[in-house]
């Protein structure tokens, strides 16, 4: 299929807000709501730092990731102005990343939790990693293909690439794609054993990607869903368009389950292949949303790969890690950070990497320390670097045609004039 693939709707739930625009405004301001967690099994009160979403499941025993993804899905579909009378549901797919199951019964068996009410833990939620995908698709009556990939921290970005592939190979006209995640004690304990969780007297300044004094990440919660559509399908129904999905690629390191190749060869090759598939020159890219975990290993690998792939253009690149504000959302991180990238592109504003007081000497790009800034970039990359060796990248281009419905904030003319002036 030679039709272009576009993004027509965004839904976002984060620790900074239960909707897209509230979250985005807080990100622009460089806010974070990281705090000390109380009542987490296996952790003394206050030891774990996390950016949690203020949303309780509507039913006892329901996984928190379900209402978060449902809320993000509803906002994305509303944003896309989907009228179900005009949509063929059999050609509307759902690609939502897998997630951790409900392990509370296990905590109870180990004596780490109070007695659970009978029937409070659903067996489907315990063992089916596609539970959120099924809930969302069933709620909105999407009867096209469903996919729920589990590729660690790259899962939801993989879900977006798979959604685009569903459209490209003719299975769908539109796909709801993305994912989410919530705190799970076993995951939290595992990350603590790996020594990658940040420790700080001040939770708000604990996560410092690309800073020479970085000490690890904080965990986060949230979800993001994108409505991907075939261009002709979107235009025929008068949809607003954020951006064009130019292409994405996946590679893997044959190196280690949790370790990365310090030479960054595979990640550098991934970036080059993605640019080639997207028809972009390195100088075409104005912004990169990095994986940016604030661990020694990840930051070093990303800094080296970006420098190698972009060469002299690296000094002109804006690169930020929004994990410094939102925390690491594990399975949900790729989609949430891609949604932030699209909002940054929509408004011509590159978001900051907060808490960077002393940039790493290897950081040869502008990591937007502390404050974001206006930047009417037209093309952007999103990178995900995950345990298991999963490497994923996606390239996006701002939709500058007058039918997009998105002029730059404060611009009194057409979108085309704004783009030419950038």
CATH class type of the largest domain: Alpha Beta
- What is the number of helices? 13
Reported by name, the CATH topology of the largest domain is Peroxisomal Thiolase, Chain A, domain 1
**What proportion of the residues is helical, as a percent range?**
25-40%
Shape: globular
Structural class by helix and strand composition:
alpha/beta
How is the largest sheet built, in terms of strand order?
A: 5-4-6-8-1-9-15-14-10-11
Low-confidence stretches: 412-422
Mean residue pLDDT: 90
Task: Explain the layout of strands and helices.
Blueprint: E1 5-14, H1 20-28, E2 35-36, E3 49-51, H2 65-79, E4 92-96, H3 104-109, H4 123-127, H5 131-140, E5 146-147, H6 155-168, E6 174-181, H7 185-194, E7 219-220, E8 222-230, H8 231-236, E9 243-252, H9 265-278, E10 285-289, H10 296-310, E11 318-320, H11 323-326, H12 333-347, E12 349-350, E13 373-374, E14 379-386, E15 390-398, H13 415-421
Parallel strand pairs: 3-7, 4-5, 4-6, 10-11, 10-14
Antiparallel strand pairs: 1-8, 1-9, 2-3, 6-8, 9-15, 12-13, 14-15
Helix pairs in contact: 2-5, 6-12, 9-10
